[in-house]
Amino acid sequence: MNRVQVRIAAAGAVVLSLAALAVGCGGGSTADAESQGKIDLVAYSTPETSYAKLIPAFNQTSAGKGVTFTQSYGASGDQSRAVAAGQAADVVHFALEPDIARLVDAKLVSPNWDQNQYNGIVANTEVVFVVRKGNPKHITSWDDLVKPGVEVITPNPFTSGGARWNIMAAYGAELKEGKTPAQAQRYLSDLFHNVPVQDDKASAALQTFTGGKGDVLLAYEQDALLAQESGADIQLVYPPQTIEIQTPIATTTKASSSAKAFVKWLYTDQAQTILAETGYRPVVSSDESAFARAFPDAGNPTLFTIDDVDPGGWDDVMTTFFDPENSIMQKIEGSIGVSTSS
Amino acid sequence: MTTVALPRRRASGAALPSAAPGVAITYLSVIVLLPLAALLWQSQKGGADAFWQAVSSPDAAAALELTLGAALLVALNNAVFGTLIAWMIVRDSFPGKGIVNSLIDLPFALPTVVAGLTLLTLYGPYSPIGLNITYTRTAVVLALLFETLPFVIRSVQPVLLELDREMEEAAASLGARGHVVFRRIVLPNLLPAILSGMALAFARAVGEYGSVVMLSGNVPFSTEVASVHIYSQIQSDYVTGATAMSIVLLAISLAVLLSISALHRRSSKHVH
Amino acid sequence: MFTKLGLRFAALAYLALLLIVPVGIIGAHTFSGGLGPVWDSLTVPDAVKALELTLEIAIIVVPLNTVFGITMAILMVRRELPGKALLSALIDLPFAVSPVIVGFTLILVYGQQGWFGSFFVDRGYQIIFSTPGMVLATMFVSLPFVAREVIPVLREIGTEQEQAAATLGARSHQTFRRVTLPAIRWGIVYGVVLTTARSIGEYGAVAVVSGNVIGQTQTLTLRVSQEYQNFDHTAAYTAALELAVIALVTLFLMNLFHPRKDR
Q1: Same fold? A35-123+246-294, A125-244+300-341
Q2: Does B9 contact C at CB distance below 8 Å?
Q3: Which of A256, B32, C207, C253 is deepest in the core (most CB within 10 A)?
Q4: What is the pTM of this model?
């Protein structure tokens, strides 16, 4: 080969590589995303097991015949951010309402998404204590968590939606016991001084706990029930009072009619029973017995909602508790650093 | 460097097509510089005050300090053990050497989650060897040591393979002891490769997320590293903070990399 | 002699504690339930698709980054370039960027509201949450390896042999193929192996831009996390072992290339 040939060869290599890239691009073309019978479902992590049963059941119904699904699961905040940045989605199901609010702000979900009988909530669960088999530290109440020598595992409130539910559960339970907001904040501070590990996600915190760290884990009841079913050596303890975790669902503005039909179907007895059997508390009242049948040992603590804790709901709570620059949790996390690193 | 005059450009430099520098630099720009420019652009959106506030807050400072300290420690440790292991693989012979050699790259291929999990199994609360160091700063270093293991080994190895053994043999035949041969002859020749590996290990350690997040415990002020801090700011929709922190990390890494390459040039002037 | 044994022991102990035992644990976990479940989780369509996607990305990324790396190495060592020190540092920079930020910046550039987002969207191409975005993220995180491996070797071999060849009348590309390439081959080998390993193993950056759609944009690495989270440990460890095998096969193949000299 002479110089010219070398150049031709090099040019050829570049062209080939670009062609390879183009093939890759072609694969990502959005052209086929519009078909009627396809639903892009983007959800937070834990309902994956539920959807594995819900989708085949939906396909058996007349509305769901021939409908195909693509499914994506991940941490609620990550998923919401991805949809806001352009990930294809017809149905979104998140762990907390601010993640839907982000999509409303991005004009991807209608502001009326929660204007239905169920306020846009498709399934409930609650914050529970998860302890080692036999409950060796005798943990039964929120007060037990702040005793000296008790290690509490909860994810980091600035990275995890689950952690935010945990904190609102603890804070709300204190208020329900008649404490003042100042005392309840004091309680949160004591609680976080007992937290040796703050994982980035609720699922990671569960792994940390099943991996042997800590005496008690704050977790979604549904997540804990599934972990227990798959053989983890854990036990659920129901605190006397806890928060009801309401998981919102919505269709996006470009959702197909089958996507809307699917969400509607999720409120039927059939779908709610499947949700109950996979660990969720159904939102349709006629189906509450399905959960009790599937999990006879589950407790029934007194429940309160996020609106009971703060009438302003998540909007308010996000600023007062979880603003990264000036909020209750930011100050508490700061105080941990002062006392441990000095 | 040699000064022998050559027709046209020097040696293998001439084998490159004349478009090569342009193409290579364009590639670098599209793949690396463009995204970094976007990062820079985003970080200044909040103004200088917001930028400064984001990186100088006590928790950000603590995370930066931990990250840089751990990365430095990891780079130094790699320099010693990486060189030793490369030396052993190239020059020593023992049964199972081939297997050891082929395992070296696995820390990259294994997803960080798996790395985190296996290290947790081995050094966590249920440690079979009774060594529980997880959820401490030591665990941060441990995770980083695992993730950066191949760098120095794989950059020293090829140089060692190409290294002329005649010089060493000559020195040895003249009565020089093993460690003298190593210090005077082998080490100076390996130094560029060791530094190169260290630079990579340092850079990687600064940016690592997945395995550290599982092992460290993420407690602010104590075991939260910079990349986890960045993640928490993204999750809180505090983009200015996240990008500002990344820019600072990048600037520090760039400074470290530049000084390593300066060291590089000085050392290579001595050798050649 | 004793020092040599001592050094060997130290090196092996270090490797055992940091690498060999942990990898052994993965193997043990994978097969703890017998071969049946392993085979099942290997052949599930979603797992097959994840493997295909992982390989597809690696096949696009590795050759491009290799050609870039070799070119860059030669430019850095054999040519006079202005701002070489800066360029050299820039090559390493991708590592220092937290994976989360890599994904984030790609969204800033190619996302729907990004700099070039509308350009591609108008033409019907989706970059982010699709293969091209994942390719870009992978290119970013695995860019430095080949250049970094080849540069020290090029320095070490010097220019004497190349000059001798040139003096004897060899053309520049002949010199490159016959003299330079064989000499830097181990650098290329390890560079390619590391690039491949990093390409298939990357999690953070790819996770942000993939969308993680099961059976479509889910790579093996993403699958590992998801399956582990679902307490399907066999599936998670099987996928992890698949990744390890890909890395080992790459190393093996690269060792076949020019099977002469040394070892």
Answers
A1: yes
A2: yes
A3: C207
A4: 0.86
Identify the CATH number of the domain defined by range C35-256.
Answer: 1.10.3720.10
Q: How confident is the model at residue C1 (pLDDT cuts 50, 70, 90)?
A: low
Would strands A121-132 and A91-93 be described as parallel, antiparallel, or unpaired?
Answer: unpaired
- The 10s digit of each residue's pLDDT in A176-204 is 999 999 999 999 999 999 999 999 889 88
**Token digits for C192?**
């390619």
Contact in structure between A44 and A265 (CB atoms under 8 Å) = no
Alpha-carbon distance A35 to nearest alpha carbon in chain B (angstroms): 33
Contact across the interface for A20 and C215, Cβ inside 8 Å: no
- State the CATH class of domain A35-123+246-294: alpha beta
Residue C85 C-alpha from the chain's centroid: 24
Dump pLDDT digits (tens) for C63-97: 999 999 999 999 988 888 788 888 888 888 888 88
* Neighbors of chain A with 3 or more C-beta pairs under 8 Å: B, C
Q: What interface predicted TM-score (ipTM) does this complex get?
A: 0.85
**B213 contacts in A (CB within 8 Å)?**
199-200, 204
Residues C204-253 pLDDT 10s: 899 999 989 999 999 999 999 888 888 888 898 899 999 989 988 888 88
The CATH number given to whatever domain includes residue B232 is 1.10.3720.10
Q: Is C253 on the interface with B (CB under 8 A)?
A: no
Q: Tell me the C-alpha to C-alpha distance, in Å, between residue C148 and each of B146, B197, C153, C188, C262.
A: 20, 8, 9, 10, 22
Place of tokens 């109440």: A141
Which of the four pLDDT bands, split at 50, 70 and 90, describes residue B201? very high
Print the domain residue range for B253: 45-271
B250, part of any domain: yes
Chains that touch C (3 or more CB pairs under 8 A): A, B
Domain A125-244+300-341 classification at class level: alpha beta
How many structural domains does chain B have?
1
Nearest Cα neighbor of A235 from A127, A128, A125 is: A128
> Which of B55, B219, B238 is best to mutate for the A interface (most A CBs within 10 A)?
B219
